[in-house]
Amino acid sequence: MDKQESKANKDTEQLILEAAAREFSTKGFDGARTSAIAAEAGVTHAMLHYYFRTKEKLFERIFQEKLGYIINMVLAPLAESSGDIRERIRNGIGAHIDFLKENRELPIFFVTTINSRPEVYGDVIANLSASASARMDAFQRELDAAHARGEIAQVDARALVGDVACLNVFPFLANPLMMAVMGYADFDDYIEARKKENVEIIMKRIS
């Protein structure tokens, strides 16, 4: 296979993945149709099956990539080995909620998948657990070192990341109810307010 053909294959695969992400995110696994995905990607139904074989395999690929990316949005800034740890935590919270803001359908997509297709969720978590665990361990060492220097309180890394995830994800799951309760008419204004509040909550948590 020459370079041009290889690039064409990658481009086609990416078009299918992008179309599938939109279809699964809006309709879930049961409601999504491979014919609709193929049409949106601009490929034939046969070509879609050539690349991904089954709807299940395509869904698993989408779920794994999206979950891996959303986890990395939290862990990557935190597990860096340089820079002020408080600023890294602040940046990690902001990057995570900004990603959710641009992909606001993902939290409901994940919750629906976890409840309706636990076998997919379990397999993906098993595949991601090793790398996530290594990053979490590195983050714990950074937290412990910062605590020893008197910069922050003693903090459990896993509990802290769990707190960030819960604080950031809930506004997207509870929207628009929480917008109405809190008096916001604009979603972006609501999320920006929540981002500032979430940062302050976590900063107080580690002080």
Describe this structure in words.
- The N and C termini lie far apart (57 Å).
- The mean pLDDT is 85.
- This protein is 84% helix and 0% strand.
- The chain is globular, with a radius of gyration of 20 Å.
- The longest helix has 31 residues.
- By secondary structure, it is mainly alpha-helical.
- α1 crosses α6 and α6 crosses α7.
- It has 10 helices and no strands.
The arrangement of helices and strands along the chain is HHHHHHHHHH
The SS-based structural class is: mainly alpha
Low-confidence stretches: none
Q: Indicate the overall shape.
A: globular
**Mean pLDDT over all positions:** 85
Cα distance spanning the termini: 57 Å
Strand content: under 5%
Helix content: over 70%
What's the number of helices?
A: 10
Biggest sheet, open or closed, and with what strands and sense?
A: none
- For the CA atoms, what is the radius of gyration? 20 Å
Keywords:
mainly alpha, single chain
Could you provide a short overview of the structure?
The chain is 84% helix and 0% strand. α1 runs antiparallel to α2.
